[in-house]
Specification:
The structure is a homodimer. By secondary structure, the first copy, chain A, is an all-alpha fold. In chain A, helix 3 packs parallel to helix 6 and helix 3 runs antiparallel to helix 16. Chain A is globular, with a radius of gyration of 25 Å. Chains A and B meet through helix 13, helix 14, helix 16, helix 17 and helix 20 of A and helix 13, helix 14, helix 16, helix 17 and helix 20 of B.
């Protein structure tokens, strides 16, 4: 069986090689004029400085966690944790690096060729580096952990022999713990990248808009605005590095929840053969490997096709569809052949469709992901009613714009959740709880393609900024704007994937959590008072976390506002374009502000479950997990869709959707208020909530063996 | 034992008699000048017309439900349903009636005496009619149901004999069903009063503000604004009738969930004596009766005290504290003496503190209610940091005011929920699930006092409006403004009580629901896929419901805006005060708009659980209930506190809190946007969510015996 890992190994090698090739092929392109080089250089320096500083902090926190893991869980878990953190950080770092090279080259390509298709190719090539690295590094780490700890250290054999290794605390410290450690490593990086990056990008964005657009009435990305470089840096650290680590974490979480469930199923079902255990453990990894191979084809389509059409959205969709379709085929073959002769065990894992079960379940995930994405598009694109309604309400002023946006966002929660529920129920029906994990892996199996598409968006956004700041011709900006606007739609769809997969991964992890401390049937009685209280407090946590994040952005943005105002007042000739603004100070303010403000929300995310576990025990934490997961899904959908719709309602007015009311009209002013309110909601709060629920489940899973035995409440006999 | 019901009977008679006395003593006061009479008359006519129209619709829906109940559950449940609906409708109607008499008399008393204390007395006398009727009518109905169906029809004896009566469908149709029917009757009225009234009041308010304040720059309640009478009508139908039926429903829900739990505990514990059953059933009713007697003293304090001090807030607090303290004493005596000789059964009901258990549990509820109220005050009053921060953020414009308010509202969820969790856990620890029901009854035991205080607010608000519209002296308005501002604070505290008690009542009802279809231990396994999917969809429901409500208000408000604009344009001399605006059309628009817009949310609230039950069965509905309850609590806290804080941030700026930035400054304009956004959130969405979760649990409880046996999923064998 393990021989099949070679397929995954090949997929990883191909993906990384392709990423390296694309990286250097982008890097060796021309940067364009001196002014363009200069601006791109400033963005690059700013982004590097922030990531380096952020990583330093994460390294310290990571080291502390690694030591604690080694002391209380196992040295294997600690090592796996470090590997996970390194993989996640590397993917984010490489992706950001290439994004800061690609942006200016996209501008230059547009400037030289004035061809949409050729420009798209550069932007997508840049994005593909991130997409391939996310999937490649994640799988690479998993293979390493599997080979070293699972096979070489014999942890899988221990499980197969029912000889679950114990550590000095006398606790279960088996392969499941090692694997959870790996997932936790990815989570920690994702948390900091997402939260830190999210605060950075929106503080700079809001700061630039609040003074530049609203007070000084200069356009976006105008070089006279001192915060404009910081704004562009923000796109790279938030939308590129943040997104990359986020989806890498979901991907890892989904795959490993399948692996962990496999172990737990084995330990709870006496009759399983050890070979079946291996198959169950390997299938999610293989499915992911197959998906990665599929993505190589899909990505290759855009990069190799000689002449891309000018319908950018369609070309990107084709790439995604090719990847998804091939992933489905790969999943079918894998499921069919791997589980072909194992009928004896189907009943025990709850498989209703024999060896097709894992495949069918993964298809549920894939379809659900796409449908949720389409629903997000309906609620946020201005081609449809909801967003048009917000634009119309802007005619009555900012208050009704906000009201309509809130209402739209709230209403938009039901459909995606219903789809998610159908996917959960369907995948459970065909494949038991293992099926739900497969659905999560399925949804993310073509993550390399979706991340490539998602990353191309901020690269194009940056390219437009550089065109504006370098004073290039209007037609250059037109090309980058077209790329950017497609990027906005793909971003909305990507957000649907992110929350959908986070929900499925969190639920599978939660099931593994319950397996870890319940003896018989897995069960979480929500009407048990301790669990119920946990669910109530857990449900309030995403609200608290979101509120803190919004506060953090607002605080950092206010500092930026003060600085931009100061520069406008104190540097003479700045608004006439005669004096150069001090970009560097703004970058520093954003950096320091986000580093400072991200501490509390991150500490809350980490400590809330840990402390609750050691005080109230495992049932309470179970309640917290379910309560937090449920409200986080709702809030993520609400903030994502409300924010996206506000943004596009503004764009609709700008594009002349309301007759006679364009830029500068009172309706447009009202829509700018909505857009500004939506910014931190959709780009900081929503994505961070995805991470919150995953890091909570992963942390609890790692610690459950400790706090289910040692907690204050059980010590007090309550 | 039943002889003790006489105490409750006496309390009811005293309360109703006192209410009648206060009603007529207010009515016979002078109305003041002709202009005042005229305005008050217009408000009264508008309010009556709306309530009459609304009740007609409810009567039709109620008749349909009653027939269905009679056909599928039992004729007793149908009768009890009608009694409940009549009691709830009467309380709302009487309260609104007196409010429309009291408002102008408060203005007149202020005009004649210029004395704050004497004016307070009139306003509070008006409010007390509502408070006393809410508690009196609720208990009256319960006594009737208990005597007729429980005793005369022998339904309690049937339970005591374990001979649970069955109906032609072959289903359990015992006393629990009858009692649930009564609660459902109260719920239906509360739903329509709250939702309809909430839409009415905010459509009129927003409509009046959006044109009057923002466009025409005329002050609030200015007689030149055509929507101003509609706005004042709205206070009466929304804040008086709506609030009254809402709290009556919570009160009934809390008491009856105790009664139902008592029956279920008896049926699930073979060894119970029938006398202990009677005691368990009667205790919540007696506790409520004791509380009502306590309130008579508390209310009497304000009304009888010869000279009230000018510290209005303190005087009202004293009344509440007297009521609460005496209710605690009454609870102690009742618990101690009733359960004195029943040690044999304590273990079976989970009582850890012997016969003190129910009392201790009720104290948990009372304390939690007060603490949650105080927390609401912290997050919404401008004496504290959070609201000041919103006011400060207004300096940077509307967007940051909104952002800060959202963040404040989100953060404010955690503390009240933690208090609620402690109350649930504590009351469970001392008294089992029955203890949680007692906590709910405890929290509401002095409801007569809190409703009196809550109702005095809108009466004073109206009085101020009448003073303004009649062109009375500035010092009259000053007195009513003082009363009104205290009313705002008490309203925030009242909202804390409303959501806290709704949560506890919903949870106890949910436990009863689980008892009704689980054979052994009550349990709801949230990780079971059907329950989990139910929880996900249930969690999205309050978001959908809230979104629809906001939409409804915005739609109705937009119609009002158009009408007010039309009148300003078409009626010459209206803004100079030379021509009279057409108030009637505005009232009609508000009436028709709210009647039309309330249909969908109400139908959703009723049909969602019912349809789900008949399709997916009882476990799925269990999931819906828990999911919806959890997110509804969060959203109610979020909307209530965010809205309250926005309102008060505006008041803070108006009162000169930001140096140099008063009325008319850009910061004030920004804060008006926040206030307008917050209006439908705090006065329509939040209160309606309280009802949503209660009506869902009540409905499910009534129907569970049917759909646990007949549902599509079990028919399909899934």
């Amino acid at each position: 069986m393990e021989i099949l890992l070679i397929i995954v190994g090949i997929a990883v090698i191909l993906a990384v090689a392709y990423a390296v090739f694309n990286f250097f092929s982008v890097k060796k392109m021309e940067e364009g004029t001196e002014r363009m080089s200069e601006i791109a250089g400033a963005i690059r320096v700013g982004a590097n400085a922030f990531i380096r500083y952020e990583l330093k902090i994460v390294a310290i926190i990571g080291a502390v966690i690694a030591v604690l893991l080694a002391a209380f869980i196992s040295w294997q878990a600690a090592c796996a944790f470090i590997i996970g953190a390194v993989m996640s950080a590397s993917a984010g770092w490489v992706g950001m690096k290439i994004a800061t090279y690609a942006n200016v080259r996209v501008t230059n390509r547009a400037r030289e060729t004035k061809d949409l298709g050729k420009t798209l190719k550069v932007a997508f090539k840049g994005g593909s580096v991130m997409g391939l690295c996310v999937a490649g590094f994640a799988l690479l780490g998993i293979i390493i952990v599997y080979l070293i700890f699972g096979l070489a250290c014999g942890q899988i054999e221990d499980i197969a022999n029912g000889n679950v290794q114990t550590y000095w605390t006398g606790l279960d410290a088996s392969f499941t713990m090692t694997v959870s450690g790996y997932a936790l490593g990815c989570s920690i990086i994702a948390l900091f990248n997402r939260v830190g990056g999210g605060i950075y990008t929106k503080a700079a964005d809001m700061g630039a808009d609040l003074v530049g657009k609203t007070e000084a009435h200069i356009p976006e990305d105008d070089p006279r605005n001192p915060a404009t470089i910081a704004d562009n840096v923000g796109d790279n650290v938030g939308d590129v590095a943040g997104l990359g680590s986020d989806l890498l974490e979901s991907y890892v979480g989904a795959i490993l929840s399948g692996v962990i469930l496999a172990c737990e199923l084995f330990l709870h079902n006496a009759g399983f053969s050890s070979e079946f255990l291996t198959k169950l453990m390997l299938f999610p990894i293989l499915l992911a490997g197959g998906g990665l191979l599929a993505c190589l084809v899909g990505i290759g389509y855009v990069l190799i096709k000689p002449k891309l059409s000018s319908n950018v959205h369609m070309e990107l969709n084709i790439a995604t569809w090719i990847s998804a379709a091939l992933a489905v085929v790969a999943g079918f073959l894998l499921s069919f052949f791997i589980f072909k002769d194992e009928d004896a065990f189907y009943e025990a894992v709850g498989w209703k469709a024999a060896n097709f079960s894992p495949w069918l379940a993964s298809v549920f995930g894939i379809v659900a992901g796409i449908v949720i994405g389409l629903i997000s598009e309906y609620y946020t694109s201005y081609d449809y009613k909801p967003t048009k309604r917000i634009a119309n309400a802007s005619k009555e002023g900012a208050a009704l714009n906000i009201t309509q946006g809130l209402s739209n966002g709230m209403i938009s929660c039901m459909l995606p959740v219903a789809v998610l529920a159908i996917a959960i129920f369907g995948s459970y029906m065909v494949g038991g709880m293992y099926g739900v994990a497969c659905a999560a892996v399925g949804m993310l199996s073509f993550v390399a393609a979706t991340v490539s598409v998602d990353t191309y968006g901020p690269i194009s956004d940056n390219a437009g900024g550089i065109a504006e700041m370098s004073g290039l011709d209007e037609d250059v900006r037109e090309i980058t704007d077209k790329l950017d606007s497609v990027g906005n739609t793909t971003a909305a769809i990507g957000k649907g994937f992110a929350i959908g997969s986070a929900a499925l991964a969190a639920l599978s992890l939660m099931t593994s959590y319950l397996y870890a401390f319940t003896e018989t049937d897995i069960m979480l009685n929500i009407i048990d008072p301790l669990t119920l209280c946990g669910a109530l407090c857990g449900a309030a946590l995403p609200f608290l976390f979101s509120g803190m994040l919004i506060n953090a952005v607002a605080k950092a943005a206010r500092k930026m506002v003060d600085e931009v105002r100061r520069q406008f007042n104190e540097i003479p000739g700045i608004l006439e374009g005669e004096a150069k603004p001090d970009y560097k100070t703004c970058i520093e303010i954003s950096s320091q502000g986000s580093i400072k403000e991200m501490r509390f929300p991150c500490i809350l995310a980490i400590c809330f479950t840990v402390l609750s576990g050691f005080i109230f025990g495992a049932e309470f934490v179970g309640g917290i997990l379910i309560g937090a997961t449920i409200t986080a899904i709702m809030l993520a959908l609400f903030t994502g869709n409300a924010g996206g719709a506000w943004d596009n309602a503004k764009k609709y007015i700008e594009s002349g959707g309301l007759k006679g009311l364009g830029k500068g009209s009172p309706a447009h002013d009202a829509s700018v208020v909505g857009d500004t309110v939506g910014d931190p909601l959709k780009d900081t709060v929503g994505p961070s909530l995805d991470i919150l629920i995953k890091i909570m489940s992963t942390l609890s899973l790692v610690l459950v063996v400790v706090f289910s035995q040692y907690n204050l409440f059980s010590l007090l006999g309550l």
